[in-house]
Predict the 3D structure of the following.
Amino acid sequence: MKTIQRRNFIKTMGLSALALSTINASALLPNLISGDTILLERQNIKITGMNILVIDNIPPYSGQRKWLIIQIETNQGIIGLGERPTGGVTNLKPQISLLQDLFNRYIIGQNPFDIEKLWQKLYASVHDYRHPGLYATPAISAIEMACWDIIGKVTGQPVHNLLGGKVHDKLRAYGYFEPGGAMENPEVAGEQAIKLVEQGITCCKMDPLYKLGGPYDFSLEKMRKVARIFEEIRKAVGDKLEIGFGGHGQFTTAGAIRFANILEPYNPYFFEEPVHPENIDEMARVAAHTNIPIASGERLVTKFEFRELLQKQAAQIIQLDVGQCGGILESKKIAGIAEAHYAMIAPHMYCGPVAFAAALQLDTCSPNFLIQEYNYTDLHSDILINPIKYENGFITPPTGLGLGIELNEKVVKKQLSFRI
């Protein structure tokens, strides 16, 4: 058998790598020869531009009325997708202006592989703005997840393979359960819960006391009406359906404790945002007074805010939003902090398909993944060439490169509000 001298082999491979650098970077894969890893020099890939797409959602507008999606372009012809959740506003000019400013100052001309360096530039370059916030941090998230999409396409891997690999073959999911008229006729909730179980759904959440703002003082009568809804669901399906109370921070501390005590006999899956998230001490006070697990995190950003939430034992179920909290790598760090506190992650989802796909990449590689929120319209599937698969209460993790999705340009054109 003919042998190859190691020096000549390395020289040959170096020439081969040089030749490969002239073709599409998505064709490049690690080379494993005789157990030795041949390291290819990092490709000279640079970010060259950004397109912004504003998409009109369809009724019932789950994930907000408008989606803000970005496409980051490179000199290799590879495009990365990102999304900034819009937070319910329809005038997106301020959000777009911020994205453009951050991109032009810190991102154009950079290597998308330099995730950590780019994140630090975006987050910390302006001294007086170095602080977690729901205005700027989601813009960082959009740019960061687009860079990950590029990295996955260059390396020929889904993002979860680059962050530890697949832990879960399928992802348990849940959404809002809104049984109309249940406050007046709680039996309706039981009837509809039976239908959910028949579809294979094992978890849902509801907020019959939905009221933004506050905190408010809810009457004992209203709180007991909610308890009767839980009671009817338990009568109808027993323990086959987990039920979370999806609060929006609308209670006072005392009211949240009182309400939790009323719901405890029905063993809710969680009590979400019993109080507003800016005062972690008061949320911790609620957690200390109930055996219902407290869930929170959709309005917190960066590892710094989640550290306090966990350190003060204010929540056991961490509802980080990958599209808002700082991006995929920041989410992975948050998930790691949660894991060290024996807490589970249940990522928040009220966005378009790109930020959702980013959340699924995190879910797939996180050992402390619990459940994924899934609120959707038909457009979440129709706008993708390769729709995310949801069946019988579970999501199949995308296996494509990067985020695992690609936009259907025909549907984009149809639903496009405007493009920049």
Q: What stands out?
A: Residues 1-41 have pLDDT under 50 and may be disordered. The longest helix spans residues 137-155. The two ends are 60 Å apart (CA to CA).
